[in-house]
């Protein structure tokens, strides 16, 4: 089977899947097809390069769709630039933006996971039980066990939904935390936050 | 004296302190403690005047600040050698402030990502793809509770007027569920379909309890498409499994 055809199959899989497809998942699906002899052999590297080609093709013809790498897989999405028309076509249930305390707590959990409530509260300097509960309800945070400390406190970590919501490939995709000295300099210069990258 | 402070909502004492440091354009490594303490206390005073509830953390920080201030007023003991010279009393506070600032910045970046990514859409799950090849998993208790909560939320507000229903027993409901499943055949029914005739909270809860009991004794199976799909209810055809479940206890 030619690359062109395989690429088409992968594109179709991405289109139909409602969630990010991992390389392993794509590989497994390809291997299940009737054209076994050809597709069984295909490796992750090959799939990845085909995905990259697809990505470029979409970008080159200024498509209204993008292929993004998010939450451990690949997914076809629409870029923010076209969102206003999408919202006109379909009534999309958009949840309210996260509050400042929620974002703050989520940032701490994301960078320091797994961690316990006391560690979060130590950094924020305020009681955080309510905020954590809200994040659990929204499925951005999950309980992954208990720490071997007196009282066996609950350990929290972020979820796949968290990655998806913020368009992150994985946890290492988070920007590195600023060092203390950088911060102190900014105190004088005034902060200039970098803009977040999106499927543009 | 008139207060020049515009009342903003601060998450906590650290947030307020960072704000004061920024507002006064002072060096975080060399905080003029008297000035900051004064403004901090003014702020708390203002909160009191406005009858706002002051969280304990704010008061604890006030005490800490005053403690630091008093330490700084004390003359350094001359007998202490250079190496043993006590740490700057502000050091611990500065460390905490910087640590907190790091995550405030990180939160801001997350907020920017959110801003852009919430306008990124993808093709939703297609319902028509539901078929034999789907991986069905047994539903966990929490998924069921989620479904129950969703269902109860869907009851229109006015329906909450409780009408005492006749003959609403657990046992009766269990029989009714089994009958409906018999009619439905191997396709089973969705949880929604089973609950759709129930319009009161009480009825929904009883049907739910009936389902739980039936599942416990393995007369029915509750399955769900892997991931987050609709819960479907099936009659358990396997005698063997059913026997393992034991008998229904009389109620």
Verbal overview:
The complex is a heterodimer of chains A (200) and B (251). Chain A is of the alpha+beta class and 200 residues long. Chain A is built from 10 helices and 5 strands; from the N terminus they run ααααββααβααββαα. Chain A has helices at residues 3-16, 23-32, 36-39, 44-60, 83-89, 100-112, 117-124, 129-137, 160-166, 180-189, and strands at residues 66-70, 73-78, 115-116, 141-146, 154-158. In chain A, the strands form 2 sheets. A 3-stranded antiparallel β-sheet of chain A has the order 3-5-4. In chain A, β1 and β2 form a beta hairpin. In chain A, α1 packs across α4 and α6 packs across α8 (129-137). The longest helix of chain A has 17 residues, at 44-60. Chain B is α+β, with helices and mostly antiparallel strands. Chain B folds into 2 domains: 13-74 and 85-117, no CATH class; 127-244, Arc Repressor Mutant, subunit A (Orthogonal Bundle), CATH 1.10.10. Chain B is built from 9 helices and 5 strands; from the N terminus they run ααααββααβααββα. Chain B has helices spanning 13-23, 33-49, 56-73, 91-117, 141-154, 170-184, 191-195, 201-216, 239-244, and strands at 121-122, 136-138, 189-190, 220-225, 231-235. In chain B, strands 2-4-5-3 form a 4-stranded antiparallel β-sheet. Chain B is elongated, with a radius of gyration of 32 Å. Mean pLDDT of chain B is 76; it is low at 126-134 and 243-251. The chains are: A alpha+beta (200), B alpha+beta (251). The interface between A and B is large, with 52 and 46 residues.
